[in-house]
Specification:
- With 31 residues, this protein is mainly alpha-helical.
- The protein contains one helix and no strands.
- It is rod-shaped.
- The mean pLDDT is 85.
């Protein structure tokens, strides 16, 4: 149970970092 929770948490963090990266690219080129 704990391993599955940590895995899900890692996936959520990785997903958040990817979304932030794709969101920051147009902002950088916009300015």
């Amino acid at each position: 149970m704990m391993e599955n929770r940590s895995g899900i948490r890692e996936l959520q963090i990785a997903r958040g970092l990817i979304t932030l990266r794709w969101a920051s690219i147009p902002i950088i080129f916009g300015f």
